[in-house]
Design goal:
Elements lengths: L1 H14 L7 H13 L4 E5 L5 H7 L6 E6 L2 H13 L6 E5 L11 E6 L6 H8 L3 E9 L17 H19 L3 E6 L5 E6 L6
Parallel strand pairs: 1-2, 1-4, 2-3, 4-5
Antiparallel strand pairs: 5-7, 6-7
Length: 199
């Protein structure tokens, strides 16, 4: 039953050109959540709820807050989450993540929204991260284009990919954090706070 609903969501995403996480990427992320016993997640960029649902299915103790600015996607996500009977564990917020203020603390911040805003999302929500929390960023290779910026002819696409690369530089050079990059799915970065006591 649940598998059928997930297949429907995947089909809808494909037919309506909604970007959802690649299967290898979401499987890697779910295993990471399970292994690290992550329970409270903040997701920036719900889309149609696919990754929220997949993450919530890892463990019945997982609770997710997810922010989406596009009303149509938000409504579709609400429907999908209800179909999966996960509305008690996944809370959706409609709005621009840069204009929303949250008080809670999270085990994981998952960034998968407007690629040009990743650094702003990171800076805004790092205060909501628990001391030992992690920040996960998707689309770090952006269909393999981040290594081939010079070959991109479309100006807007080139600017977007350049911004993703600048975000990667921001992660690499951030003195408070350490980041590991994984060439899985569309490229995933996992960022940890540095243990200041050991420096």
């Amino acid at each position: 039953m649940k598998e059928d609903i997930l297949k429907e969501i995947e089909k809808y995403a494909e037919e309506n050109n909604v970007p959802i996480m690649q299967k290898k990427g979401i499987n890697f992320l779910c295993k990471f959540i399970e292994k690290n016993e992550i329970k409270i997640i903040l997701e920036i960029g719900t889309a149609i709820g696919y990754s929220s649902i997949k993450m919530a299915l890892v463990n019945k103790d997982i609770n997710i807050v997810s922010i989406e600015r596009d009303q149509d996607k938000y409504i579709e996500a609400l429907k999908n989450i209800k179909k999966m009977k996960l509305e008690k564990r996944i809370t959706l917020i409609l709005g621009d993540a840069l204009n929303i203020n949250l008080d809670g603390k999270f085990d994981m911040l998952f960034i998968d929204a407007a690629k040009s805003q990743y650094t702003k999302f990171f800076k805004k929500y790092e205060k909501n991260l628990k001391e030992d929390g992690v920040i996960v960023s998707d689309n770090m290779s952006f269909h393999g284009l981040t290594d081939e910026v010079d070959k991109i002819e479309n100006k807007n696409l080139r600017q977007l990919v350049t911004k993703i690369n600048k975000y990667k530089e921001f992660l690499i050079n951030n003195k408070k954090y350490t980041t590991k990059f994984y060439k899985i799915g569309d490229g995933i970065a996992i960022t940890y706070r540095k243990d200041l006591d050991n420096e």
